[in-house]
Amino acid sequence: MIRARTPEVCVIGSGPAGALVAYSLAERGHDVVVLEAGKRFDPGESGRRMEQRLRRERWTALYEMGGERDAFTVSGASAYALNERRVKGVGGSTLHWGGTVPRMHPEDFEMDSRHGVADDWPIGYDELEPYYLQAEHELGAAGAPNPFGGSRSGPFPMEPHPLSYSDRLFQEAWEELGVTLHHLPRAINSASYDGRSRCQAFGTCSPVCPSGARYDATVHVRKAESDGVTVLDRAPVTRLEHDDTGERVTAAVYVHDDEERSVEADLFVVACGAVETPRLLLLSASEQHPDGLANASGLVGRRFIEHAAIRVRGRLDEPTRQHLIGFGTSQTQQFYGYDEGPRGSILITPLNTAGTSPTEAALQDGPAITSLLGGRRPDEMTWGDELVDQVTAETDGFLAVSAGTDLLPDPENRVSLDRSRTDDLGNPVPDLSFGIDEHAIGTLERAEELLTELVAATGAEAIETSHEPENAFFANHMLGTTRMGEDPATSVVDPDLRTHDIENLYVSGGSVFVTGGPANPTLTIAALALRLADHLDGRLS
Question: Which domains does the chain have, with CATH numbers?
Fold first, then answer.
């Protein structure tokens, strides 16, 4: 086995959780190595990926997800297309995310104390608030204070994006209902920031921001590398090895160029997301840890959390100017409070992407895709005014609103190993087993009523729901499989994100969440990563 040099810290994963830890430590002079399972994607290929998506190619093709390397199984009640949105590569899934960065609310950290459901986090909003502010500045968040959220100790680094045309239609209609629409914070530059352009409104934010205005974790990967961090891509870690006592990890074993290699370090941080993090810990089972590393509690992989959501769409007999910028500019957290559910918290977001985009509608039948359609002749295709009318019919006048809520942390919702199937390296693949509970279904039923009323208030007709509450779609926000807590019997990591069982092993990312709230999780992931970096710096100093 080839052994690499020995850094102070080995970070596994280069999404926002891993990149921010590596950058923050390197900035303070620490020696860090990052191991990333996927490749380093060429930014010069972003235009091609944007074109692929506009031509309706699948997400999996855009970032080379799929095949034996990324195989998984689903055994629960809910189907889950895991590879549709995750990315194995430098930057992780922020390579194609929408850049939505709300904070969680204070009550999200105290669900048991306040409402008698789920569990409290071992840390509260006030403790995390300074790191929220720091994360907003690191990612570059454009926003304004939320009238329904927690307190703030400072302003956003950038002004919010102006409300879109259709959001202003909602704002005017909702005022009569007593519903307040406010700015939605985005990690998309509203002005030049941190060496990156302001948003140019290309309207293709996901999967590609051609201007570089939208943050992704390669920003901090590059900063980390400039401070001396070594980032090894195409280096999937297959197991963690420990010493004879079973109390310290000694090496991360990975495969590169078909050779098994390892990195030894003083401290290890697993930042692979809520599916691959528990999978790695379970794959690292040993004589001392027969049920998997850091799994004395039996909770590694358990209490998987997602955000279940629905959309309601209607149509006005007038232009609504959808798809001009590619992302929502507003939100209402007025129904976020758990008591407003009545079953649970609801986060409501107007969309600017209702109906087919004009580009996609034109490409479905336009001359640009002749070569992709088996050589269709020009006389078989729609042209001129007829094409304009067709595109208009598919795109104009639509309005849509989405609502999301979280699943309660059920121990039967889990990630485990499917030993009947292996990946390209011969290791068992992850199995995902979970379903939408009655709590979430009840919340989404209430959300559907609200959304229908809110869309109808604009005067829209032909109102329809995208998914029934019991068959809601998922936001691909994977959380909760190595939860934090004070008690080793009921959690995997402690409040400092160190595993209870292994003295020098830490976890960073959404897997440490105790509850999910309805808010997008990336800003909280970033805040926790920055907080972890402070702890590790103190330990190493």
Answer: 1-88+106-118+216-305+409-436+476-541 (3.50.50.60)
